[in-house]
Amino acid sequence: MFLEALLTVLTLLIIGLVTPGPNNITCITHSAVHGKNSNYNLIFGMAIGFITVHCIVGLLVSTFAENSIIFDVLHYFGLLFIFLLSLRIFTLNPSQINKEIESKSILELMNKEVKNIPILGFKTGLFMQFINGKEWAFVFTIMWLALEGFGGGWLGILFITTITTTGGVIAMFTWTFIGGRLVDIVSDKKRGKSVFMTLGALLFLLGVLLLIKGPELL
Predict the structure, then answer these.
(1) Looking at the 3D structure of the chain, how many domains does it have?
(2) Cβ–Cβ contacts within 10 Å for residue 113, how many?
(3) What is the pLDDT of residue 97?
């Protein structure tokens, strides 16, 4: 049962990390604009958020396994965030890039009045995890399918959290490295616009797929 649960977690982890999501796209876009070194605090915040979400979902699955109302609400609230963020990334203008602005909320990226692309930090990475519909669905699915195989309770939650958080952090740094190579490209008006439009379209497509699928488990 343990090996089956481990295989389930690893399979879902790979699927979740290779498909575009708010964390992946934010890392690659942010590093492309500000350089890969700018992502350290952002990714650290994401990691703390990963752990927090895993603990919350793990407890919900352990205590209220048959109650799907909370998951439904988080799913559709997360979808709203995904669509808004994808729209803002799609419409980002390379000429607005300014590396001097201080760290602000990710919501600044969705504010049409913003003239500069902000440097995102720890708070942003942490906050994103609570409104990331893909992550809630991903974590809920893993906990639902594999928690008992890892011993259930806090022991199972800690095992799963360690595996997925480690994989997630590695993936974010991988996406950061890819994004860092795009610094010269996104500063170019024509090529930079193409990059942002492509990334925004990928994130929007993810939102559409999740919307069609609905809040049910994989």
Answers:
(1) 1
(2) 5
(3) 46
Residue 200: closest CA among 210, 208, 189, 190: 208
124, part of any domain: yes
Amino acid occupying residue 193: K
Is there a domain that residue 218 lies in?
Answer: no
Distance of alpha carbon 60 from alpha carbon 71, whole angstroms: 10
Segments forming the whole domain that contains residue 136: 2-213
Residue 150 included in any domain: yes
Query: Minimal CA–CA distance to 147: which of 62, 50, 49?
Result: 62
The DSSP code for 218 is -
Kindly report the three-state secondary structure assignment for every residue of 65-132. CCCCHHHHHHHHHHHHHHHHHHHHHHCCCHHHCCCCCCCCCHHHHHCCCCCCCCCCCHHHHHHHHHCC
Amino acid at 27: C
CB atoms within 10 A of CB 170: 11
User: What Rg value do the Cα atoms of the chain yield, rounded?
Assistant: 17
CB atoms within 10 A of CB 97: 17
* Residues whose CB falls within 8 Å of the CB of residue 89, separated by 6 or more in sequence, listed in order: 25, 29, 109, 196, 199, 200, 203
Reply yes or no on whether the pLDDT at 32 is more than 80: no
Contacts of 147 (CB under 8 A, 6+ apart): 5, 58, 61, 62, 156, 157, 160
Domain-located, residue 129: yes
Percentage of residues of the chain with pLDDT beyond 70 = 69
pLDDT of residue 158: 94
